[in-house]
Amino acid sequence: MTTLAGKTELMPWYGEDSLDETSDLPAALSVLAVNLLNAELRFKRSETYDIGSDEQQEYSDVLAFIIPKLVQLVEAIQSQLDSSTDNDTNDQLLGLRCRCYWLASAYYLQSGRICNESSIAKAAEDLGLDYLNKVIHIMSNNNSQQQKQQIKTPHLQSSTRHEVYWSTLSIETLSKYKEYIQSSAIVSSARQRFSDIQNEMSKRSQSTTTNTEETVNDVTDDDKAKYSSLGLELLERYDINGGKAGELINELLKDLLLLHEDHLTYTSDMNDEDNVTTPRSKAFTWNGLSHWGRLWTEIPSSSKAMTNTREESSRPSIIQVLASSLVVSGEKISSLLLMFSKLALSAVSQVQATQQDDSTEKKDEEEVDGQAPSTTNNSKAGHGKKNRLLMLVVNFFVDKMNDLIMSYTDQADMIGALESHVTSQDFKGLILASLNKLHIVQDDSTDDSSLHMNIFRSASRLVHTLRDHQALSSQARKNVESVYFGSLVKSLTRQKKDFAKLTKTNDKRLKKWQLSITSQADLVFFKANEVAELLSLNPITVNEDGSAKVSHLMKAITGQDGGGSNSTATLAQFASTLLWFWNYLSNAYDILSPTELSIRDRLIVPIVSSIVGLCGSPGVSVEPVLDSKDDTMSSDNKSSSLSLSDFFESDDSVNGLFLHGSSSEENRQQRARRVLLRKICQLVQCVSLVLKSVNLKLIRQEEFLSTLDFPSSQHGPFLPLVTVRVLSSMSEAIFDLFSVDVSDVAYPYGARECGSMIDGLLGRAYSHLYGFSFVSTESFASKSYAPESIKVSFAVLSYTLFKYCMHLTSFLLLSHSHSRWQLDCSVVLSGYTMLIVKHPRLKLGRLWSLPYLP
Q: Closest by alpha carbon to 847, among 832, 831, 836, 833?
């Protein structure tokens, strides 16, 4: 090792670092070979560390010292060769020269890519290209030699270096690499042109007026033409549909992390009321600038979110140049949307790859003893920092996709791209990854809670924007709902395992445990609310032949939408998850900590709402299963292995009135109707049981919680709203099953009891929503809400008239008790409520016939 003049530390150089006339040539070649190999391995090692880390910077400083000395030494040795030098020495020096120039080229090209200063970056890239030309020139001049023997460099290959020119140096491989570098030169040129355009616009605006607010977005037609040319060139360079799309997207992501790492963070006012919202609320008023700050305008998604203010010496990122150019020119906006989606997916895949590597390292640590713990801790810390940045990238580009869709809703190419994108695996993978909690570091579960919550909210806002996009076809919007619902179900099922582990912790006084279980409960709260909202708005409809048409939501989680094999495993796991949460939240015999008690009060309404919503899907979880030919539930389908016991434990079960095929006289449709009626009766009983576990105060949570916590909060308390939706669909199902003419159809025994239970549950739900009750013992809400539709308004009115007529009829009978009046009240919810007062002698007919359609 030699000591540098003016420096106290020792730099890694082995042997003499200079050559004179008396130096031994073979010894000089040995010194060159040793130091060259040392530099090559250090350069390979430096790429394993994050750019900007202390380890990467240390290796970079060493290489900045070694590489110029290697170039100087190899040129000095070359100058001392003469014609008398033997061929072996010439061949040895030829190989060392090519490797030395190749290393210098790779080092300076990499330095140019990671440098923030435009002038320094361009100088480094030019120097790297010069050294690459030297290698090609040397090998071309010795063409006869190199055609027979290539220079092997297998020690330069790694997991990130799989191209052939890292293992073999030849004219062919280096020429391909030069083509790649020259195509990359387009990027450098685009950066410079982008900076020139922005500087020109900035100077023009400053010279024309002092009011920069009026001219900051004043773009001329000439500017648009320049931006258009720039954007189209970069789109051609970064073809996301080509064979190397993955490599190109990773290049964009790496460049983004390098140049915008300091800006990838939330602003201090991100927790303001305008920015902390539920997935649906304020989707169109959410302010990206307040949430992301400067980065939101540097990578624009609309003309309103773009600014020309930029530091003179700052180097724009590739995605910044591309997004700005396309937004200003207004061309290829759909391609920008797909680019944002690919970048988010690339970040997700890198986080998942890191998790797999961490799992492998953990297994290796268990097998190998004596490993230094500091190395493992430093590795985890480095992975944690990088993964946190990658998840911020996911969050940022999901927000950008949402803003881009809302800003360009009327463009025909955007609508066509959305129709195609929402059916792609990329969209499904992005939503699923955004809703699932990816552990950034294995031993860190608190610092990333707000990050995961923000990613979930961003993905949900994106979904609701697409669901409300009127220009999309109904099939496309249904597909968005299916993807979202399936991802929510899988996410809740996985999250239940993490939540269950936290509940089994011995010491629940730790602050870390309290923060962890609270953050988990917040995610469960919002996800369960979304599940309940989707299920209650999309119940299964019943046909007259006793079959049930399955909703697109249930098809998504049972594989009946064409996305996989038919299976009820996901549905069974989801039902088990909801029941586990309900048992945990409603068990009054457990001794719980104050934190768990507050979590119970927060989660009971969303979980019960989800169970009630799931009850609105009769025919899915029990036989019969879906007939793929007509998308209906047929009782003749014998492939179902699931069955539930009868709800009624009375003579009806003995007589088989609720068992299909109980008598030979029944036809197929009648058997199907009775089977489905049995399921509805079971589900109504389930709804009644879970509703009893919710305290009255918790049902009216809007009195002490923000109304933004629940979907559809403008229509009233969430649980009564979901209950009304589900029970109304069930009552309609009973009517659709058996009512063609109410006065002629004899309902099976048990339907009346089921209808009476629905009637009572609806009455209690109405009291919470609309502020009235017909039962004196029930309390009702002090605040009433407007019904969410005309259909619901008519249902509330008919219910009120029905109850009024019931009380009036009772009064008439009591006041004429001496007569032989009789009351025959056939109550059929969702059908016609018949109030018939009869007298044997007078044969008085029908008094009221009220349509009742909740």
A: 836
The DSSP H or E segment spanning 826 is strand 822-826
* Chain segment 100-131, per-residue pLDDT in tens: 988 888 888 888 777 767 677 778 888 888 88
Return d(Cα 530, Cα 279) in angstroms, integer. 9
Distance between CA 415 and CA 411 in Å, rounded?
6
* Dihedrals phi, psi of 21, to nearest 5 degrees: -70, -25
Residues 479, 563: contact at Cβ < 8 Å? no
How far is the C-alpha of 446 from the C-alpha of 450, rounded, in Å? 8
Contact 683, 645 (CB under 8 A): no
Burial 325-349 (b: 16+ CB within 10 A, else e): bbbbbebbbbbbbbbbbbbbbbbbb
Give 476's Cβ-side CA count (13 Å radius). Answer: 20
Distances (CA, A) of 215 to 207, 279, 311, 819: 11, 35, 18, 90
Helix ranges (H only) for 508-593 are 511-537, 552-558, 569-586
One-letter amino acid at 812 equals: L
Q: Can you name the residues that pair with 151 across neighbouring β-strands?
A: 169
CA quadruple 303, 305, 309, 314: dihedral sign = negative
- The whole-number average pLDDT for the span 720-739 is 83
Mean pLDDT of the chain: 75
CB-based contact 604:694 (threshold 8 Å): yes
Q: Give mean pLDDT, residues 824-852.
A: 37
Cα 212 to chain centroid, rounded: 38
Place of tokens 């040995």: 30
Identity at 478, one-letter amino acid code: K
Backbone angles phi, psi at 168, to 5 degrees: -145, 125
- Tally Cβ neighbours within 10 Å of residue 285: 9
Residue 323 CA to residue 307 CA, distance in Å, equals 12
Buried b or exposed e, range 127-165, using 16+ CB within 10 angstroms: bbbebbebbbeebeeeeeebeeebbebeebeeeeeeeeb
Q: Would you state the pLDDT for residue 486? A: 92
As a whole number, mean pLDDT of residues 423-437 equals 89
3-state secondary structure 743-800: CCCCCCCCHHHHHHHHHHHHHHHHHHHHCCCCCCCCCCCCCCCCCCCHHHHHHHHHHH
- Say which residues have a Cβ less than 8 Å from residue 430's Cβ, sequence separation at least 6: 341, 344, 345, 348, 398, 459
In a 3-state reduction of DSSP, which class is residue 114? helix
Three-class secondary structure of residue 590 per DSSP? coil
Backbone angles phi, psi at 698, to 5 degrees: -75, -30
Q: Are 511 and 518 in contact (CB under 8 A)?
A: no
What is residue 477's predicted lDDT score, i.e. its pLDDT? 92
In the chain, count H helices and then E strands. Answer: 28, 11
The residues, any chain, with a CB within 8 Å of residue 728's CB and separated by 6 or more, are 762, 792, 795, 830, 854
Mean pLDDT computed over 49-78? 84
Query: What is the Cα–Cα distance from 581 to 640, expressed in whole angstroms?
Result: 27
Query: Cα separation of 196 and 310, whole Å?
Result: 12
Long-range CB pairs of 104-112, under 8 A, 24+ apart, other chains included: 104/67, 104/70, 104/71, 104/128, 104/131, 105/129, 105/130, 105/131, 105/132, 105/135, 106/43, 107/43, 107/63, 107/67, 109/181, 110/47, 111/60, 112/188
- In percent, the amount of the chain with pLDDT more than 90 equals 16
Beta bridge partners of 824: 836
d(CA 231, CA 773): 64
Q: Which of 215-219, 489-493, 736-740 has the lowest mean pLDDT?
A: 215-219
Q: Check if the beta carbon of residue 177 is closer than 8 Å to that of residue 153.
A: no
Residues 15, 28: Cα–Cα separation, whole Å: 9
What's the average model confidence in pLDDT over 646-667? Answer: 44
Q: How far is Cα 108 from Cα 97, in angstroms, rounded to an integer?
A: 17
